[in-house]
């Protein structure tokens, strides 16, 4: 793409990001506002005009999937050579490169899972542990390390952070465990993921020749999801930068949901204090969700109060056409809720929504069991996010072996997608899925994902770059390295935390009751505020259809003692409350709205707004927002006094646009 074409594909605020080629830059980007689009186009534009060398850019994010998505978008923009990686992937690559020169020999083996070493460390310090305790202690050791807290400082630091030692142990016992954990690693000559960041940061800090080489290679840095950066990751980033300011960070404080792992929005919120000269750009146009979904998300955050960060929240402005209203459901019990959601998901599928575009999100992993049973009973395919990784499945590994072998003798004259179907038929794939659920259907779903990927690649092929089996194998190898799995056709079951960064056409938020949302373990105010942000993240995963529900009791026949979450106070319908009109500064009552407006009138008003925006060379939303147009289309004002009651219409807007608006309303037939 040409530089002009790169910019033309962006809205005004995204274009501002792309043009901010020199740092420091902080982009505050709300959910669904196209932040990945903005930063990848920024990189591509910088490369196209010669401001950046592609190999001098290091873009880091928090998940392999996000890094893979960034690389794919840059490739589609014709940019090769940019490093887009997770913090750990980038650090591991550099550590492996410099270790032989600085330390000598091969680097220590990476221990992917802490559990075996934690269990041995617990035995050495006399702690009795079971599987759950080992998991909890592993998480606590990880928190201490990413927070740059040593064993000597753990007791004081954990108290200051308000953390209770896990599984009933005291802080002193955990501190002893941390020391023993490090000893066991040293004896076994292994390192963990946190050590990778620590060792590289120390190497850069202590060896000038290493730091100079890395800094001469990477001159520009982009950090996505900056609200989730930990003290350890920030320390490594500081070493990469070496005092330079060519840094662009992107984040949203309202999506900070991993503080229990050591993530902190402090670095994002204080970026302008760290870099007073930094350019700040806000992305608030939500292209993902309908106005109904966006309105609920905004309202949930507004009710947080200043202590909960409401003053820092970005108010999203919906850009999509209006959709169906958000649905709220109360069930007798959890089993009824699971069955009801499975039934409603099946109806959506019957109406044309793909199963892979539907998700059921819940607060704890333990809630998945009821939904797995309900979807199996309903005959609806599903996959549990957070289960076995796609590329680790035996049938996927076997299929890739077959494809790799066939690539060497593939007939270039035959359509690639047809060859793939023939190859995978030998591994058990068929045109139609098996009627049985369970393992057989899961195997078929996995191979069908490979078939669908082959179809996608074939559809994107050109005469100059035809689709081949070898090309499919290369794509799969790249995706396997990044853990960027192809889409498996089935309803997604996932925890709210696991859903971060994803989106679906239809989302069911289950278990919206006190004790689950917020979780009963959230006792401190800051923990409750984070639970509210978690709900916000869940809401903003939905594009069109959104349903929130809870069960009044846990088990069938149980007492209906549960209450729906406090976070939906004033938002859950049919609550016994008196409606309250908003007032202007002059005391005039604002219009009471139901959210049901005249769609034809709304479209006419949007067409008028577009003409005004073109004539005045202004963004359309600066004329009137979608929310204001929807309110006008609902109350259908017949005069200036009624028009003035609409939120977003003041004296200046009435003077400028009042006559035109009232004329459009008067000429629109009543619905």
Characteristics:
DNA 3'-5' helicase, six-stranded parallel sheet, alpha/beta, DNA binding, 16 strands, 27 helices, 671 residues, 3'-5' DNA helicase activity, HRDC_dom
- In helices, the fraction of residues equals 40-55%
Shape: globular
Radius of gyration: 27 Å
DSSP strand (E) fraction? 5-15%
Number of helices: 27
What's the arrangement of strands in the largest beta sheet? 3-2-6-7-1-8
Q: How does the helix and strand content classify structurally?
A: alpha/beta
Whole-Å distance between the termini?
46 Å
Main sheet record = 6 strands, parallel
Protein architecture, described:
Pfam families: HRDC, UvrD-helicase, UvrD_C. It comes from Promicromonospora soli. It is an enzyme of class 5 (isomerase). InterPro entries: DExx_box_DNA_helicase_dom_sf (IPR013986), DNA_helicase_UvrD-like_C (IPR014017), DNA_helicase_UvrD/REP (IPR000212), HRDC-like_sf (IPR010997), HRDC_dom (IPR002121), HRDC_dom_sf (IPR044876), P-loop_NTPase (IPR027417), UvrD-like_ATP-bd (IPR014016). With 671 residues, the protein is α/β, with parallel strands linked by helices. The strands form 4 sheets. Strands 3-2-6-7-1-8 form a 6-stranded parallel sheet, sandwiched between helices. Strands 11-16-15-12-14-13 form a 6-stranded parallel sheet, with helices on one face. α22 links the parallel β15 and β16. α10 crosses α11. The longest helix has 22 residues. The relative contact order is 0.09. About 2% of the residues have low confidence.
